[in-house]
Request: fold
Amino acid sequence: MDKPFRRRDLLGIRGLTAAEIKGILDTAESFLEINTREIKKVPTLRGKTVVNLFFENSTRTRTSFELAAKRLSADAVNISVSSSSLAKGETLVDTALNLDAMQPDCIVVRHGSAGVPHQLAKVSQAAVINAGDGANEHPTQALLDAMTIREHKKKIKGLEVAIVGDILHSRVARSNIHLLTKLGAKVKVAGPGTLVPKDFVHLIDAAEIDHGSKAEGQRPLAVCEHVEDAIRGADVVMILRIQRERQDSAYFPTLREYAIHYGLTNERLDLAKKDAIVLHPGPMNRGIEIASEVADSSRSLILDQVKYGVTVRMAVLYLATGGGVTNS
Ligand code: CP
Reply:
């Protein structure tokens, strides 16, 4: 097993080494079997407390963190922001300090603003896990995506991954670009010009970036002008949700036009390798970024992503609360 993750907090993929990422994935793999048992519970985190603090809606992430904690026998507490004292004007830092005074072992936080988990980590004694911060990062989503790819392709290095859609607002895209390029995959991104930032230099350390549609050579990240150029020859096609809640202006004329020009249909998927797999972080806008015929096909691993989400979050909670041996 690679050297596991030995940090207290998981704030993003950007700061992790390839060995740390592989260590988390290997740990998750070792937990896979627990989720196939009739009684899906082990005493590993008995006596530990996990607080889920979600300022944005969530189905998959919040539920799977709660299940992950409970399957490891930790106590999980979900804080409803609308009924907390945040609604009475308490600052985020004061809320964090008060939660911290109750001595939880881990705080899992999702917030609409980038950097909130980092802010919390500075004042909290508990391990802080980023469950999505604005358009910045969603590290456990990228880890579960990587686990899904690894379980089906048996590797990540050397694969071509197309990421299509609303790149600009997508924390999923950012975390995946970091993770996949660190593990040796080649990533091609595409979408409407207004939703694909042309300057990715700040995203990828030491990456050479091709701003054209040539996407050749050894470059780890390419920005393709046409969605077909990104999908052609891909091993993995990752479709992103149109993030209407983060769009403060019209980035494309209509949803119908978006579906016609950028939506993943069977015809577009036929450009990828014959054994290409399809991923989507959810929630899906069926008929917009992905056709139902693709989402429900045997090439779609969307529900596998959700399944591996529980396992990955078990690994992250285990490592962040001491399973990685040392804190730093
Ligand atoms: N993929 C994801 O983060 O889904 P939720 O918003 O339902 O948590």
About this structure: The chain has two domains: 18-136+307-321, 139-305. DSSP finds eleven helices and ten strands in the chain. The CA atoms of residues 74 and 222 lie 42 Å apart. The pocket of phosphoric acid mono(formamide)ester is lined by residues 58-61, 132, 141, 281-283 (CB under 6 Å).
